[in-house]
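Field notebook, page 394. I keep forgetting to write these up properly, so this time I am using the form the group agreed on. The chain and the ligand, pyridoxal-5'-phosphate, are recorded exactly as supplied. Prediction of the bound pose follows.
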Amino acid sequence: MQATTQLIHSIPVDPLTGAVSVPIYQTSTFVQDAPGVHKGYDYARTNNPTRETLEKIVAQLEHGTTGIAFSSGLAAIDAVVKLLKAGDEIVAVDDIYGGAYRLFTQVYRQFGITVRFVDTSDPIQVFNALTPKTRLIWLETPTNPTLKISDIAAIAKIARAQRCLLCVDNTFASPILQQPLQLGADIVIHSATKYLGGHSDLIAGVVVTKDPEPGARIKFMQNASGAILAPFDSWLLIRGIETLPLRVRQISNSALAIATYLQRHPKVDKVYYPGLTTHAGHEIAKRQSKGYGGIVSFSLKTDTEQAAKAVVTHTRLFLLAESLGGIKSLVSHPATMTHKTIPAEKRHAAGVSDSLIRLSVGLEDPEDLIQDLSQALTYAPETIKQFHHQTIKQ
Ligand SMILES: *Cc1c(COP(=O)(O)O)cnc(C)c1O
């Protein structure tokens, strides 16, 4: 059976009533026949049938044994880090999601957990950063916003040799394109706010583990700390996941068409998209994923904030907003939005130049999206570099 068919039929029909849609069990507690004797549910923080259905669906999607649904992507990350104890170390991808960076450096450092950030697109750097205290390697691939690719299988081997866990934040690729547990990772997390939900209408996170342990410990942490996903949001997320394969396929095709268009545009300098053969991580992305996703970033030849702002304020279909992964296309300017707290020097070193623009491609017709970019790019200044070139030639 093909994966899409399998996914749609992994969403069960309600055994009690035959309802084709998963029922929303909007309840806090469950009646017990005698103390401790119940139908598998006692209190809804610990377990809720709607959430449990969602958790089984995501576990199957990622080929894991245990799925756990959280109230946000960051709550999911937090629960994974709680597997560690004071004195343990984490080696993490250097252009990590900003919220994860804040959690690692401003919260967990206080509890004696040390983090080293390295360029994980080079597995040697991961290897060199390990110490006997390293308990967790943290990857994102592709990363935000320059879509850097790390070799999951190569880093999984390093993690296994060191007996530390490898966790992959799979938000950008989605399980339709990339399945880290199949490549040797131990844990996958998602900000389900993005592609899994897919409609920009909820905040949610999921963890999936390959083995029942550490799944059981993360589930224990969730019950102990309390960041569960509510029944209605669990239902919304199930509803989003039903169309995930279709959405991701269409979005990936559109994103490739847009990246190819941008590459030929005279005002565009660099285009970052793993599907382009010119992208640094293209070969690895091709090997470890079934497609390249919906995020495209590009810089302008006139590499200034003003130039980028002229473009992002003139798109009509691409809405100017943070976040990604929804059906409506979004555009953002990382230097003044998601990455504004990073000092300019550090930001530039990570490839986030002043004019870098990030697109989250949605489900509009790709021709309309290209048309929109074409008209917005007319507002970008004529390229300074080209001008210099011409004057030198004369
Ligand atoms: C958005 C995001 C998160 C955080 O998820 P929330 O649902 O906003 O808490 C984590 N990782 C990545 C890659 C993200 O894009």
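OBSERVATIONS:
- The chain is about 40% helix and 15% strand.
- The chain has a mean pLDDT of 95.
FOLLOW-UP: compare against the apo run.
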